[in-house]
Amino acid sequence: MARVRKTLRLRVRAGDTDFTGFVFNPRVIEWFSVGRIELLRSRGITLLGDGRLTVDGEPLGVSLVVGEVYARFQAPIRFDDQISLQTEVTEVRDKTIKFSFTVRRILDREVLATGASTSVCIDRETRRSSKIPPRISELLTP
Amino acid sequence: MARVRKTLRLRVRAGDTDFTGFVFNPRVIEWFSVGRIELLRSRGITLLGDGRLTVDGEPLGVSLVVGEVYARFQAPIRFDDQISLQTEVTEVRDKTIKFSFTVRRILDREVLATGASTSVCIDRETRRSSKIPPRISELLTP
Amino acid sequence: MARVRKTLRLRVRAGDTDFTGFVFNPRVIEWFSVGRIELLRSRGITLLGDGRLTVDGEPLGVSLVVGEVYARFQAPIRFDDQISLQTEVTEVRDKTIKFSFTVRRILDREVLATGASTSVCIDRETRRSSKIPPRISELLTP
Amino acid sequence: MARVRKTLRLRVRAGDTDFTGFVFNPRVIEWFSVGRIELLRSRGITLLGDGRLTVDGEPLGVSLVVGEVYARFQAPIRFDDQISLQTEVTEVRDKTIKFSFTVRRILDREVLATGASTSVCIDRETRRSSKIPPRISELLTP
């Protein structure tokens, strides 16, 4: 069964690193945000300027907010490294979507970091957790 | 004549530095943002969550947006350095406010960076430049 | 038994937020970095510009690198919110130190985010994991 | 005469924006850093992990550090906007290199921001300003 995943290529920027000479760990969490957004885009789901999800140009009344995030840093990541970031939907539940992330050095495919996050569907009006619209669930389920 | 200025103390964070071992220059521009906001706060002007200026708890229909910024980096700034950031209003015009910034190492008062920025008053409805409300001008003029 | 912990007060900066109007989740992970560094400082442990740990002005041959981090976001955090960040050492093992984090809104003590991280002791020469120097373990054990 | 310039395409990330709904101005200064590094790379000049310039795989004893930066923000930049960043060498002097930057929205070519910066050549040993190696000057002069 085809997985719902998206792979991006990134170049480590100066601003991603810190004085130790390696990537500052919160920047990896920022990459996870980019990975989620691009995975959604690859399935036809975009975010409006107010955070609302949009499918086929039609805004829905819900947003996704990150409820949990985890990252494991397995090897140092350096300035100018070319990396791949693979984002995958690992679970779609009633109100939450789980993603996993794998960061590899492109040169030798070494895994540099892995991670996971859970996004919670939020109703824009009530600001409370809400059912994921069926259209979104379908697009994110293999 | 008393100047409208505000001095903050900051500690250089890991995330402010890059792989060269020194502060990544855009982080200094971020400090300028902190300096402006705290100078405004010290005069009783705060920003609402939508960016509107608020005086004495009363929201106004305008925001300030940065139109120009300049910085000069005079000496390397290191992780863990304790620095002072002095922000000063240098000019209040019809629709713009100019600020200047001085970053010093607290230990020896050495000037590490200086800068300037111009904020433009924007009408929240039309999104066009707008006259600075008299209440704001008064609070920011010595 | 006294716990090894440190509480900081922070003001949410513009740069901590994103277009949704709330704090961008990786910024909370950056605060965890600040919390760890200030907890270490409160115990007399500082970091040199090359990342080496220093106790009583004496540099050691080891660094701490973040091996894992986890965060849970429980309530939206807004621009200008005043927050407290409590960092605590939860475990000191042979080669690793575990920290926990609690972010609260100061106004009403509501818990906004919690988290945990594991730092691994690394030998500066071999770049491999290494035993935590006894001096560090003592300072971080209640 | 051919100009020394490089154009990149970027997508505005969530972390580039702030609570006002638009790009946080220091992020544009971060893009300038990316533009400089990619322009250098396009001419065969890369940066080592310690900041040293490298040409044809041969490390030189100098680094470039940003001495001044200026930016003018002409129109709001939004989350998810696709932008182009054009970086150009505008002057190569004895010890300094000047760059200019133009950020455009790709959709309609509207100029969103412009800027300029000056990099100073620094000797890695003395940490003082130093002559730009002839090899670098040649590569950056049309």
Structural class of chain A: alpha+beta
Determine the CATH superfamily of chain A: Hotdog Thioesterase
Largest sheet of chain A: 5 strands, antiparallel
Query: What is the CATH topology assignment of chain A?
Result: Thiol Ester Dehydrase, Chain A
In terms of topology, how is this protein built?
The structure is a homotetramer of 142-residue chains.
Chain A (H helix, E strand, L loop, with lengths): L4 E7 L13 H18 L2 E3 L5 E3 L2 E2 L2 E12 L8 E11 L3 E10 L5 E13 L10 H7 L2
Written description of the protein model:
The structure is a homotetramer of 142-residue chains. The first copy, chain A, is α+β, with helices and mostly antiparallel strands. The first copy, chain A, has a single domain (5-140), classed as Thiol Ester Dehydrase, Chain A. Chain A has two helices and eight strands. A five-stranded antiparallel beta sheet of chain A has the order 1-6-7-8-5, covered by helices on one side. Chain A has a three-stranded antiparallel beta sheet with strand order 2-3-4. In chain A, strand 2 and strand 3 form a beta hairpin. The longest helix of chain A is centred in the first third of the chain and has 18 residues, at 25-42. Chain A is elongated, with a radius of gyration of 16 Å. The N and C termini of chain A lie close together (6 Å). Chains in contact: A-B, A-C, A-D, B-C, B-D, C-D. Chain A binds chain B through residues 14-15, 17-22, 24, 26, 78-79, and chain B through 14-15, 17-22, 24, 26, 78-79.
